[in-house]
């Protein structure tokens, strides 16, 4: 089965869809136009679906067999101005597909079209997850809660992400831990305000905050093994209104990123201990809020092995990169990987000759659209082969 040829035959249609989505980005769960576009496409193709997690969609192609594989795409954009000069730049000020979710959605639609056209040859079922709000809270937990992994029960989940640091026509895979877990946090330090000329009459929350920020870095550098990845980032600090006024409060916010569950729990515990210890020793008070966010994304060994073999067959072994290091970024696909054997890989979308090298989450981000057919062919081949050999 030559899935790359099948994908090439619908490439122009898919590029048109991708550009339409890119011109009309939507955020979070407010994906009303995007969701309707997906539903209209599925309806024309005769693929059954239902709405889930608000503007999310779960579709299913029923083949001949008991196994079920799920393929996932995220749909939301970012609150960012598109500064590209091209015919398909965003038409909505302050919103942009700066992370390739328009391509992900398009690839899954192309995959759906091809697999549905040959469903009598498929040895099982293919579910299609169109996820909202990946860039915010993640739609995956809601989709799981609302039963997308059941009826029929899903045996494995596969997803992908376009990457500008990989040339179009290539793919990459990191076995085992692939993405970090995250815990955003907010620390409010409460002191006693007063005149800048009389600091002895105050409890200065800015000085306390400075000590807290420096000390938090010691948790990673001196308490986590240097061979293991972990990050504590302070992203903002707010306090004060004038140069000669010592404020009453300072608020610090940041995020913890870890690759191991034991480090995740340890750092959360130590953050509280360190902050409370410093603040109390300096006569202040504090309020600490640590959020539970995305878990670590883990690639199943058997699925990774299958991916490397099938990708090599499709695009050549030299175009399949086996990555040594995970990314400290986060991915809501991780919620699926916590529930079922999963595979998440990188799809090359860069092209240095065309100047398509700008990073994701930047206002100049774009993709080499030739990656779309490769992504479609990869998803089709992986789903077909998984069901054939399960």
TrEMBL record:
Protein's name in the database: Amidohydrolase
Coiled-coil region(s): none
Domain Peptidase M20 dimerisation: 185-276
Keyword Transferase attributed: no
SUPFAM superfamilies in UniProt: Bacterial exopeptidase dimerisation domain (SSF55031), Zn-dependent exopeptidases (SSF53187)
Cofactor: Mn(2+)
GO BP term, pick one: diaminopimelate biosynthetic process
Highest taxon of source: Bacteria
GO MF terms, alphabetically ordered: metal ion binding; N-acetyldiaminopimelate deacetylase activity
Pfam families for this protein: M20_dimer, Peptidase_M20
Residues reported in the UniProt entry to bind Mn(2+): 99, 101, 135, 161, 361
Keywords: Hydrolase, Manganese, Metal-binding
Cofactor binding annotation: The Mn(2+) ion enhances activity.
InterPro entries xref list: Amidohydrolase, Bact_exopeptidase_dim_dom, Peptidase_M20, Peptidase_M20_dimer
């Amino acid at each position: 089965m030559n899935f790359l040829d099948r994908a090439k035959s619908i490439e122009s249609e898919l590029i048109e869809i991708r550009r339409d989505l890119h011109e009309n980005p939507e955020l979070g769960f407010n994906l009303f136009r995007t969701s309707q576009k997906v539903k209209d496409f599925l309806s024309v193709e005769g693929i059954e679906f239902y709405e889930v997690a608000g503007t999310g969609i779960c579709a299913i192609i029923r083949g001949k067999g008991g196994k079920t594989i799920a393929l996932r795409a995220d749909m939301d954009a970012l609150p960012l101005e598109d500064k590209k000069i091209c015919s398909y730049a965003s038409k909505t000020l302050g919103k942009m597909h700066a992370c390739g979710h328009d391509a992900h959605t398009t690839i899954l639609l192309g995959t759906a079209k091809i697999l549905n056209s040959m469903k009598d040859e498929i040895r099982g079922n293919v579910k299609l997850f169109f996820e909202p709000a990946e860039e915010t809270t993640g739609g995956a937990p809601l989709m799981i809660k609302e039963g997308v992994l059941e009826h029929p029960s899903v045996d494995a989940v596969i997803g992908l992400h376009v990457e500008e640091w990989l040339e179009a026509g290539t793919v990459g895979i990191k076995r085992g831990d692939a993405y970090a877990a995250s815990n955003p946090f907010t620390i409010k330090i409460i002191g006693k305000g007063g005149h800048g000329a009389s600091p002895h009459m105050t409890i200065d929350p800015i000085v306390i905050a400075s000590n807290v920020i420096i000390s938090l870095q010691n948790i990673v550098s001196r308490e986590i093994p240097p061979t293991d990845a972990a990050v504590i980032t302070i992203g903002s600090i707010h306090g004060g209104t004038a140069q000669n006024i010592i404020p009453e409060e300072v608020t610090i916010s940041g995020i913890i990123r870890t690759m191991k569950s034991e480090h995740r729990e340890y750092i959360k515990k130590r953050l509280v201990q360190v902050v409370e210890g410093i603040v109390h020793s300096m006569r202040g008070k504090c309020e600490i809020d640590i959020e539970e966010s995305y878990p670590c994304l883990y690639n199943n060994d058997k699925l990774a092995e299958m991916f490397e073999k099938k990708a090599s067959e499709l695009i050549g072994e030299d175009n399949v990169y086996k990555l040594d290091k995970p990314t400290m970024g986060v991915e809501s696909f991780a919620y699926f990987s916590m529930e079922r054997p999963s595979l998440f890989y990188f799809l090359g979308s860069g092209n240095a000759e065309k100047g398509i090298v700008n990073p994701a989450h930047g206002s100049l981000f774009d993709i080499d659209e030739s990656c779309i057919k490769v992504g479609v062919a990869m998803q089709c081949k992986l789903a077909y082969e998984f069901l054939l050999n399960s």
